[in-house]
Amino acid sequence: MPQMSRQPLVIALSVALGALTLAPMVHADPQSSMREERARREAELGKGKTTAKAEAKAPDYPNATRQSPDAKASPKVIKQLQAMQERYEKDDWAGVIAKAEEIAGMSGANAYDKSFAYSMAGNAAASMDDQAKAAEYFAKAIAENGLDNDSHYATMYNLAATQYGEGKYADALATVDRFLAETKSEKPEHLSLRASILANLDRYDEAAAIYKRLFAQKPDDKRMLMNAVSVLQSAEKFDEANALLGDAYKRGMLTDPRELRALYIGYMNAGKWAEAQKVIEDGVAKGILQPGPDLARDYQILAQTAYANDNMPLAVEMYRRAAPMAADGEAYLNLAKVLDYTGKKAEAKEAAKQALAKGVKKPEDANRILAR
């Protein structure tokens, strides 16, 4: 007889979600800030063709509590800043860093000059994939406190994202909390970074609350949905995760194999076998779920459950679906055992032959069926 467990099914979440990970956070794009700073320097040199446009731009953080300083380059340092900018535009990252260090050490450099130089050095270090150095420079740029609000907070966000990428989650949380407290930002990308950090600190309830709120604001955002599901499952709030996925499924949002699998594995973990089977069959019919070892394994789980519930016809059907796409002959062997148990000797022997052909751990089990 097939050795089917009648214990409640538990499937590791990392497997169930197909190694689902939180949305990666990237460095905030520094280019808009760089263009604005360059426009200011050109204006100081009498070259400011884009000054009016730069000044007319609405602030990125209109509710910021920080008083934006009168950020201007020192006349003694303008040429050095221009030289650094030229190196940046040529992707001369080492040259940018060297020039930034030189500027920061100049006696005539003011807070703006130093902040801007350090922020450029941070972006250059990030481009060289030296994230530790990038974080160091971003922190120095913030500490000098010389940039306008848009550039200052873009740098602070870069620091938080860099710390997050380096796995320094406590530091990243402190930085992003300061960023949010001072900017009063409610932008999804900023709140998502905080949620990602919280999740990596195992503070799943707090992370889930953020993702659920953001998903409620934008219910067609699939990435936000899957992030919410991931942290809810990590918090062992499976019913909530299933409810979110189930609603998204009804609205036609789940179009990827990983997404469907997250739903039907969730149903399996909740003991909702009929619902799980329906999702699988729907996914196969629509071509979303393709034949393969993963799908075979999930069919076998349904087969085992059907067997445990004495539903032999369904167990046979699920094993028949699983066996051809499985990586080995174990599904064929279990099919042979169920067929043999239900008195279908000829079909059982055929399945046993298939099991031996694909390879099983205990060929003697298949041979016993063939010998009857």
UniProtKB/TrEMBL annotation:
Basic and acidic residues: compositionally biased ranges: 34-58
Alphabetized UniProt keyword annotations: Signal
Cross-referenced PANTHER family: PENTATRICOPEPTIDE (PPR) REPEAT-CONTAINING PROTEIN, PF01535'-RELATED, PLASTID TRANSCRIPTIONALLY ACTIVE CHROMOSOME 2-LIKE PROTEIN
Leader sequence segment: 1-28
Keyword Signal: yes
Protein name: Uncharacterized protein HemY
Lineage: Bacteria, Pseudomonadati, Pseudomonadota, Gammaproteobacteria, Lysobacterales
Organism: Thermomonas haemolytica
Cited Pfam families: TPR_16, TPR_8
